[in-house]
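anyone seen this seq b4? input:
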Amino acid sequence: MQTQDPARTRRKPPAMEGHATDEHDLELALLRRGVDALAAGCERCSCCHRSPLIGERVYVYASNAVRCELCRAIDGERPLASRIVHGPEFGHTMRIRDQRAA
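predicted toks r here
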């Protein structure tokens, strides 16, 4: 029969448990800050506050309001322009073209 090491069966001191909670709270605070920073840079529909998906068409109105495809039908106002939502890699990718003589 094996004997258990008394060091393994000891409980953590209360100070250590509090420290783990502080680390958890810090981790959550940093995560929230990062998510908030990402959300601040994202374009949102001025009507439903939804983030348009990549490839979705959004419409810009005279009041600088941006509406998604779903909310466009709500208002009878005619949009000034429309554009397609691009992903973060847009403009940073390369297209390789075959330039060999045929």
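Strands lie at 57-60, 66-67, 81-84. The longest strand covers residues 57-60. kinda curious what u guys think
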